[in-house]
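Open question from group meeting: does this chain pack into something compact, or does most of it stay loose? Before anyone orders reagents, we agreed to write out a predicted structure and look at it together. Recording both the input and the output here so the notebook holds the full record.
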Amino acid sequence: MAPSARRRGRVYDGYDCGWTSHPDPDKATRTLRTVEEAAEWPISHPRCARTFGLRPDALDAPREDGAAAAPWP
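Structure tokens returned:
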């Protein structure tokens, strides 16, 4: 793994739950977030049922040609 590669995880949350608060337009569920992002926002509101599934196949590693990593579908 490249030294600057970051691990990502899939977010499992309520269908309409936002990332930083419930009404946040940035919806959380089924997105890939870095481990650092997950630690910063483990929940978005009281009684939030958010969980994370680590995805070792979804590293945010820089490519050898210097281009940005392709987004995960």
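Observations to bring back to the group:
The first helix runs from residue 35 to 40.
DSSP finds one helix and three strands in the chain.
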